[in-house]
């Protein structure tokens, strides 16, 4: 299966910085899977998300979309990419333009992709609002008329109105209160289940990670250069509301060092017999990489 998104030996550095924020990153996201990026603050999770979204350019390595290097100047590919990969940000207060009606906000991707039909974007906007549990007349209202959870639903409606294949989410529920958080997690889980949406999510909240993601990439600052490298582990698919003991379960930490991971989930009956994921994908020292790199 060709990964829908892939980072191959990628490094990134912000302008003016003396060192890479992330380096030696290999990460492949298969269609339909859900991957969480977790790690300490400043490890580079948002930076990886920005690379996957084409908002930042790698200083080394390649970002691939459907197996092809992402070329920002390749209009046709970028159009396909923009339609296929959408995102939801952390703060539903700053991510919605307060001067525009909800209908106009949700229709924005349709306009920018030229997907609003002759009948206008209204039918698609109504359907997107309905999917996230908001009434169609919400389209006439303004963001300030909605509280945080409903604002995040609006942001999710905007991200899903053009029926993307991949949703990238940066701390999508961390700005919400606990009760609202559960509802938005349920909504994301339903989108994943019913639409086969691929999800890549940054989160500090392990209960949210456990509820939504099958794989976890742990970013650790490592080595004297203070670079961050991702370590990916597989976890059994949890229920949407994991029991409390699961919420406290530690994430697997794999051997520090440079390696890449493209774990394929074994069939359920094989899972018990198979060696742990890290035993198959990492090696002592600098670890292993696909294609024979080491
Ligand atoms: N626009 C920027 N310019 C310069 N440095 C930046 C910029 N954005 C992030 N950084 C730096 O890059 C490093 C990684 O930041 P990033 O936001 O990717 O980490 P993170 O793991 O998402 O952190 P957090 O969990 O706190 O959001 C940090 O040291 C941060 O200060």
UniProtKB/TrEMBL annotation:
CDD domains: ABC_NikE_OppD_transporters (cd03257). Residues 223-232 have a biased composition (Polar residues). Residues 222-294 are annotated as: Disordered. One of its GO terms (molecular function) is ATP binding. InterPro entries: AAA+_ATPase (IPR003593), ABC_transp_ATP-bind (IPR050319), ABC_transporter-like_ATP-bd (IPR003439), P-loop_NTPase (IPR027417). Coiled coil: none annotated. SUPFAM superfamilies: P-loop containing nucleoside triphosphate hydrolases. Residues 5-246 form the ABC transporter domain. Keywords: ATP-binding, Nucleotide-binding, Transport. Pfam families: ABC_tran. The keyword ATP-binding applies. Belongs to the ABC transporter superfamily. This is Dipeptide/oligopeptide/nickel ABC transporter ATP-binding protein.
């Amino acid at each position: 299966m060709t990964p829908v998104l892939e980072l191959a030996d990628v490094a990134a550095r912000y302008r003016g910085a003396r060192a890479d924020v992330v380096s030696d990153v290999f990460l492949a996201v298969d269609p339909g899977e859900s991957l969480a990026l977790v790690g300490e603050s400043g490890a580079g999770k948002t930076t990886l998300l920005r690379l996957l979204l084409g908002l930042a350019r790698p200083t080394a390595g390649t970002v691939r979309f459907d197996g092809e290097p992402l070329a920002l100047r390749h209009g046709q590919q970028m159009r396909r990419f923009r339609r296929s990969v959408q995102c939801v940000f952390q703060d539903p207060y700053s991510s919605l333009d307060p001067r525009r009606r909800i209908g106009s906000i949700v229709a924005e991707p349709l306009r920018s992709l030229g997907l609003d039909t002759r009948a206008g974007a209204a039918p698609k906007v109504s359907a997107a609002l309905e999917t996230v549990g908001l009434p169609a007349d919400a389209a006439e209202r303004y963001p300030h008329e909605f509280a945080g959870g409903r604002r995040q639903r609006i942001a999710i409606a905007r991200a899903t109105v053009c029926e993307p294949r991949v949703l990238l989410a940066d701390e999508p529920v961390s700005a919400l209160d606990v009760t609202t958080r559960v509802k938005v997690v349920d909504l994301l889980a339903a989108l994943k289940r019913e639409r086969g949406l691929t999800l890549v999510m940054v989160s500090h909240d392990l209960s949210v990670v456990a509820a939504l993601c099958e794989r976890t990439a742990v970013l650790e600052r490592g080595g004297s250069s203070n670079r961050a490298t991702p370590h990916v582990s597989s976890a059994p698919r949890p229920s949407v509301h994991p029991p409390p003991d699961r919420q406290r379960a530690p994430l697997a930490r794999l051997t520090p060092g440079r390696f890449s991971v493209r774990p394929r989930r074994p069939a359920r009956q094989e899972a018990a017999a198979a060696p742990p994921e890290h035993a198959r994908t990492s090696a002592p020292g600098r670890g292993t990489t696909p294609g024979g790199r080491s």
